[in-house]
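Project outcomes to date are best conveyed with an example. Our students and postdoctoral researchers have been running inverse folding experiments weekly, and each run begins with a structure described purely in C-alpha coordinates. The record below, which covers 242 residues, was selected by the lab manager from last quarter's runs and is presented without edits.
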Protein backbone atom coordinates (compact mmCIF):
# COMPACT_ATOMS: atom_id res chain seq x y z
CA UNK A 1 0.00 0.00 0.00
CA UNK A 2 2.80 2.44 0.88
CA UNK A 3 4.46 1.79 -2.48
CA UNK A 4 1.21 2.57 -4.28
CA UNK A 5 0.78 5.78 -2.29
CA UNK A 6 4.35 6.83 -2.98
CA UNK A 7 3.74 6.19 -6.70
CA UNK A 8 0.68 8.45 -6.49
CA UNK A 9 2.79 11.16 -4.82
CA UNK A 10 5.46 11.00 -7.51
CA UNK A 11 2.77 11.10 -10.21
CA UNK A 12 1.31 14.24 -8.66
CA UNK A 13 4.74 15.84 -8.53
CA UNK A 14 5.21 15.11 -12.22
CA UNK A 15 1.83 16.74 -12.94
CA UNK A 16 2.80 19.63 -10.70
CA UNK A 17 6.12 20.00 -12.50
CA UNK A 18 4.29 20.19 -15.83
CA UNK A 19 1.96 22.78 -14.34
CA UNK A 20 4.90 24.89 -13.17
CA UNK A 21 6.46 24.56 -16.62
CA UNK A 22 3.36 26.01 -18.32
CA UNK A 23 3.12 28.72 -15.66
CA UNK A 24 6.77 29.79 -16.01
CA UNK A 25 7.60 29.22 -19.67
CA UNK A 26 6.92 32.84 -20.66
CA UNK A 27 8.07 34.48 -17.43
CA UNK A 28 11.30 36.29 -16.74
CA UNK A 29 14.10 33.70 -16.22
CA UNK A 30 14.86 34.97 -12.71
CA UNK A 31 11.21 34.66 -11.67
CA UNK A 32 11.01 31.21 -13.23
CA UNK A 33 14.16 30.11 -11.42
CA UNK A 34 12.71 31.16 -8.06
CA UNK A 35 9.57 29.21 -8.85
CA UNK A 36 11.56 26.05 -9.60
CA UNK A 37 13.60 26.51 -6.40
CA UNK A 38 10.30 26.67 -4.50
CA UNK A 39 9.11 23.51 -6.25
CA UNK A 40 12.34 21.64 -5.44
CA UNK A 41 12.23 22.73 -1.78
CA UNK A 42 8.62 21.56 -1.55
CA UNK A 43 9.60 18.19 -3.02
CA UNK A 44 12.19 17.77 -0.26
CA UNK A 45 9.77 18.89 2.47
CA UNK A 46 7.06 16.46 1.35
CA UNK A 47 9.55 13.58 1.33
CA UNK A 48 10.85 14.43 4.82
CA UNK A 49 7.34 14.56 6.23
CA UNK A 50 6.16 11.49 4.30
CA UNK A 51 8.98 9.27 5.50
CA UNK A 52 8.79 10.63 9.05
CA UNK A 53 5.20 9.33 9.11
CA UNK A 54 5.80 6.05 7.27
CA UNK A 55 9.00 4.89 9.00
CA UNK A 56 7.91 5.72 12.54
CA UNK A 57 5.32 8.39 13.12
CA UNK A 58 7.03 9.27 16.40
CA UNK A 59 9.47 11.07 14.09
CA UNK A 60 6.53 13.06 12.74
CA UNK A 61 5.71 14.16 16.28
CA UNK A 62 9.28 15.45 16.64
CA UNK A 63 8.96 17.28 13.32
CA UNK A 64 5.66 18.75 14.53
CA UNK A 65 7.31 20.02 17.71
CA UNK A 66 10.08 21.56 15.60
CA UNK A 67 7.49 23.35 13.44
CA UNK A 68 5.65 24.61 16.53
CA UNK A 69 8.84 25.86 18.19
CA UNK A 70 10.29 27.58 15.13
CA UNK A 71 6.90 29.10 14.27
CA UNK A 72 6.64 30.61 17.73
CA UNK A 73 10.15 32.03 17.33
CA UNK A 74 9.23 33.58 13.97
CA UNK A 75 6.13 35.27 15.40
CA UNK A 76 8.08 36.60 18.39
CA UNK A 77 10.88 37.82 16.12
CA UNK A 78 8.46 39.91 14.01
CA UNK A 79 6.88 41.34 17.16
CA UNK A 80 10.28 42.36 18.56
CA UNK A 81 11.46 43.79 15.24
CA UNK A 82 8.33 45.94 15.07
CA UNK A 83 9.31 47.49 18.42
CA UNK A 84 6.39 45.65 20.08
CA UNK A 85 3.65 47.23 17.97
CA UNK A 86 0.04 45.98 18.20
CA UNK A 87 0.52 44.13 21.51
CA UNK A 88 -3.16 43.17 21.91
CA UNK A 89 -3.25 41.80 18.37
CA UNK A 90 -0.05 39.86 19.03
CA UNK A 91 -1.39 38.30 22.23
CA UNK A 92 -4.59 37.27 20.42
CA UNK A 93 -2.55 35.83 17.56
CA UNK A 94 -0.29 33.98 19.98
CA UNK A 95 -3.29 32.43 21.77
CA UNK A 96 -4.70 31.27 18.42
CA UNK A 97 -1.29 29.88 17.48
CA UNK A 98 -1.09 28.07 20.84
CA UNK A 99 -4.50 26.45 20.23
CA UNK A 100 -3.50 25.33 16.73
CA UNK A 101 -0.17 24.05 18.07
CA UNK A 102 -1.95 21.92 20.67
CA UNK A 103 -4.14 20.61 17.86
CA UNK A 104 -1.11 19.75 15.74
CA UNK A 105 0.52 17.97 18.68
CA UNK A 106 -2.55 15.80 19.26
CA UNK A 107 -2.81 15.24 15.51
CA UNK A 108 0.72 13.83 15.53
CA UNK A 109 -0.47 11.22 18.03
CA UNK A 110 -3.14 9.73 15.76
CA UNK A 111 -2.60 6.48 13.87
CA UNK A 112 -0.07 6.42 11.05
CA UNK A 113 -2.82 5.77 8.48
CA UNK A 114 -4.94 8.75 9.53
CA UNK A 115 -1.94 11.08 9.67
CA UNK A 116 -0.78 9.97 6.24
CA UNK A 117 -4.24 10.23 4.68
CA UNK A 118 -4.92 13.74 5.97
CA UNK A 119 -1.37 14.94 5.32
CA UNK A 120 -1.56 13.83 1.69
CA UNK A 121 -4.99 15.41 1.18
CA UNK A 122 -3.67 18.65 2.68
CA UNK A 123 -0.52 18.59 0.54
CA UNK A 124 -2.48 17.90 -2.64
CA UNK A 125 -4.85 20.78 -1.90
CA UNK A 126 -1.98 23.10 -1.02
CA UNK A 127 -0.06 22.29 -4.21
CA UNK A 128 -2.86 22.22 -6.73
CA UNK A 129 -4.65 25.28 -5.37
CA UNK A 130 -1.47 27.20 -6.25
CA UNK A 131 -1.10 25.57 -9.67
CA UNK A 132 -4.75 25.83 -10.74
CA UNK A 133 -4.93 29.32 -9.29
CA UNK A 134 -1.98 30.50 -11.38
CA UNK A 135 -3.24 28.74 -14.49
CA UNK A 136 -6.93 29.60 -14.37
CA UNK A 137 -7.62 31.73 -11.31
CA UNK A 138 -9.04 35.13 -12.19
CA UNK A 139 -11.14 36.32 -9.27
CA UNK A 140 -9.18 37.02 -6.10
CA UNK A 141 -10.64 35.82 -2.81
CA UNK A 142 -8.99 38.18 -0.32
CA UNK A 143 -6.81 40.59 -2.32
CA UNK A 144 -5.75 42.75 0.63
CA UNK A 145 -4.76 39.79 2.84
CA UNK A 146 -3.49 37.15 0.41
CA UNK A 147 -3.33 38.50 -3.17
CA UNK A 148 -2.44 35.12 -4.70
CA UNK A 149 -5.57 33.33 -3.45
CA UNK A 150 -8.25 32.96 -6.14
CA UNK A 151 -11.62 31.27 -6.44
CA UNK A 152 -10.19 29.15 -9.26
CA UNK A 153 -7.35 27.97 -7.02
CA UNK A 154 -9.68 27.13 -4.13
CA UNK A 155 -12.09 25.20 -6.35
CA UNK A 156 -9.34 23.48 -8.36
CA UNK A 157 -7.34 22.45 -5.31
CA UNK A 158 -10.47 21.40 -3.42
CA UNK A 159 -11.80 19.24 -6.24
CA UNK A 160 -8.45 17.52 -6.83
CA UNK A 161 -7.95 16.93 -3.10
CA UNK A 162 -11.44 15.49 -2.70
CA UNK A 163 -11.08 13.23 -5.73
CA UNK A 164 -7.64 12.12 -4.52
CA UNK A 165 -9.10 11.09 -1.17
CA UNK A 166 -10.89 8.28 -3.04
CA UNK A 167 -7.52 6.97 -4.26
CA UNK A 168 -6.33 6.96 -0.65
CA UNK A 169 -9.36 5.11 0.73
CA UNK A 170 -7.11 2.23 1.81
CA UNK A 171 -5.76 4.54 4.52
CA UNK A 172 -9.11 5.82 5.74
CA UNK A 173 -11.93 3.38 5.17
CA UNK A 174 -15.06 5.28 6.21
CA UNK A 175 -18.52 6.08 4.80
CA UNK A 176 -18.34 8.57 1.96
CA UNK A 177 -20.09 11.35 3.93
CA UNK A 178 -17.51 11.10 6.73
CA UNK A 179 -14.64 11.18 4.23
CA UNK A 180 -16.09 14.25 2.50
CA UNK A 181 -16.63 15.98 5.86
CA UNK A 182 -13.04 15.28 6.87
CA UNK A 183 -11.62 16.42 3.52
CA UNK A 184 -13.71 19.60 3.30
CA UNK A 185 -12.69 20.44 6.85
CA UNK A 186 -9.04 20.01 5.88
CA UNK A 187 -9.47 22.23 2.82
CA UNK A 188 -11.21 25.09 4.60
CA UNK A 189 -9.10 24.96 7.75
CA UNK A 190 -5.96 25.03 5.58
CA UNK A 191 -7.33 28.07 3.75
CA UNK A 192 -8.18 29.84 7.01
CA UNK A 193 -4.78 28.99 8.48
CA UNK A 194 -3.07 30.46 5.43
CA UNK A 195 -5.19 33.62 5.63
CA UNK A 196 -4.50 34.04 9.35
CA UNK A 197 -0.76 33.71 8.78
CA UNK A 198 -0.92 36.18 5.89
CA UNK A 199 -2.92 38.67 7.94
CA UNK A 200 -0.31 38.54 10.70
CA UNK A 201 2.41 39.37 8.16
CA UNK A 202 0.39 42.23 6.69
CA UNK A 203 -0.12 43.64 10.19
CA UNK A 204 3.64 43.70 10.74
CA UNK A 205 4.39 44.74 7.14
CA UNK A 206 6.66 41.87 6.11
CA UNK A 207 6.63 39.57 3.09
CA UNK A 208 7.86 36.42 4.85
CA UNK A 209 8.24 35.25 8.44
CA UNK A 210 11.92 34.43 7.79
CA UNK A 211 14.15 33.05 5.03
CA UNK A 212 14.77 29.59 6.50
CA UNK A 213 13.22 27.67 3.57
CA UNK A 214 14.43 28.58 0.06
CA UNK A 215 11.59 29.83 -2.13
CA UNK A 216 9.03 29.67 0.68
CA UNK A 217 10.22 31.99 3.42
CA UNK A 218 9.81 30.82 6.99
CA UNK A 219 8.31 27.80 8.69
CA UNK A 220 4.99 29.61 9.15
CA UNK A 221 4.96 30.56 5.47
CA UNK A 222 5.21 26.87 4.61
CA UNK A 223 3.44 25.08 7.47
CA UNK A 224 0.55 27.44 8.30
CA UNK A 225 -1.93 25.16 6.52
CA UNK A 226 -0.49 22.07 8.25
CA UNK A 227 -1.00 23.70 11.66
CA UNK A 228 -4.63 24.55 10.93
CA UNK A 229 -5.39 21.38 8.96
CA UNK A 230 -3.78 19.17 11.60
CA UNK A 231 -5.79 20.93 14.33
CA UNK A 232 -9.00 20.26 12.40
CA UNK A 233 -8.18 16.55 12.02
CA UNK A 234 -7.43 16.31 15.74
CA UNK A 235 -10.76 17.99 16.51
CA UNK A 236 -12.53 15.65 14.09
CA UNK A 237 -11.22 12.47 15.72
CA UNK A 238 -10.70 13.42 19.37
CA UNK A 239 -13.78 15.60 19.90
CA UNK A 240 -16.27 14.49 17.25
CA UNK A 241 -15.12 10.87 17.72
CA UNK A 242 -15.47 9.85 14.07
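After processing, the design step wrote out the following sequence:
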Amino acid sequence: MIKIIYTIIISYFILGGLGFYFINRHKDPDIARKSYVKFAAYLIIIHVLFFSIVINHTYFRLVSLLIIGVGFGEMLRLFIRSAFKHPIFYVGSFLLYAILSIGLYFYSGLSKEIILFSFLVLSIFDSFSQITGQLWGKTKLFPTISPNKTIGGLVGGGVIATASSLLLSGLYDAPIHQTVMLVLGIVFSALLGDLAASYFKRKYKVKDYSNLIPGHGGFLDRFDSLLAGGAWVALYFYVFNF
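The chain has a mean pLDDT of 93. The chain is about 75% helix and 5% strand. The training component of this project remains on track.
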